[in-house]
Design goal:
The protein is α/β, with parallel strands linked by helices. It is built from nine helices and eight strands. Helices cover 34% and strands 19% of the residues. Helix 6 (155-164) packs parallel to helix 7 and helix 7 (181-187) packs parallel to helix 9 (204-216). Bound molecules: D-xylitol-5-phosphate (DX5) and zinc ion. Keywords: Carbohydrate metabolism, Cobalt, Isomerase, Manganese, Metal-binding, Zinc.
Length: 217
């Protein structure tokens, strides 16, 4: 059966201390790291790219790295991200003409495939590619910034996917924390991204555990 996995987003942490913040999250029980890559085109914000991910990988050898590629041309960064030591390449299907080709290239480069959709994108758009993927990400905010309000109306997509694909890894991302994890768990999400709620928590380990316990039960 499916495992509940918690992948904190370091987007709203002190990025001048990226390694320390990441290691702290792992020490506090994070199952994987969700690394938000933005190019200023697909979303109106900029973060970091493969050179930074590679430096982080040099310091953190064994953690599972997921990159959430909020970029206009996901195909362009597959091989640099694979070289940087990324384990899962999650990309938005909206700007992509040939999703199957991108999936194939990601697999050939040795990474897992994640397919992401924005709140305005119908779930049927991603369904046709599920057999080629390892995970589907249902965004619960408009991508671009941390700290936004959770969109509960997106749970209908999670529910639909869980009903039809009992073994699919379904991730939620955006505004997820102790106040909203119940909705996500009920709908059937099993991979949980949480940014500000975890980064800003008084007790990071307790918050991560609470998120996992809510999904697991
Ligand atoms: C939004 C990013 C999310 C976000 C999560 O564009 O993809 O990963 O940073 O942060 P919170 O949990 O604060 O919404
Ligand atoms: Zn993200």
């Amino acid at each position: 059966h499916l495992k509940a996995l918690i992948g904190p987003s370091i987007l709203n942490s002190d990025l001048s201390r990226l390694y320390e913040e990441s290691q702290k999250l792992l020490d506090n029980g994070a199952d994987y790291l969700h690394l938000d890559v933005m190019d200023g085109h697909f979303v109106p914000n900029l973060t970091f790219g493969h050179p930074v991910v590679k430096c982080l990988r040099n310091k953190i050898k064994d953690a599972f790295f997921e990159t959430h590629m909020m970029v206009a041309n996901p195909e362009q960064w597959i091989s640099p991200m694979a070289d940087a030591g990324v384990n899962q390449y999650t990309f938005h299907i909206e700007p992509v003409d040939d999703v199957e080709r991108v999936c194939r290239k990601i697999k050939e480069s040795g990474m897992k495939v994640g397919l992401a959709i924005k709140p305005g994108t119908p779930v049927s758009d991603v369904e046709k590619y599920i057999s080629m993927s390892d995970m589907v990400l249902i965004m619960t905010v408009e991508p671009g910034f941390g700290g936004q309000k959770f969109m509960e109306d997106q749970m209908i997509k999670v529910r639909h996917l869980r009903e039809h694909y009992p073994l699919l890894n379904i991730e939620v991302d955006g505004g997820v924390g102790p106040a909203t994890i119940g909705c996500c768990a009920n709908a059937g999400a099993n991979m949980i991204v949480s940014g500000t709620a975890v980064i800003g928590a008084q007790d990071q380990a307790a918050t991560i555990k609470q998120l996992r316990d809510t999904v697991q039960q």
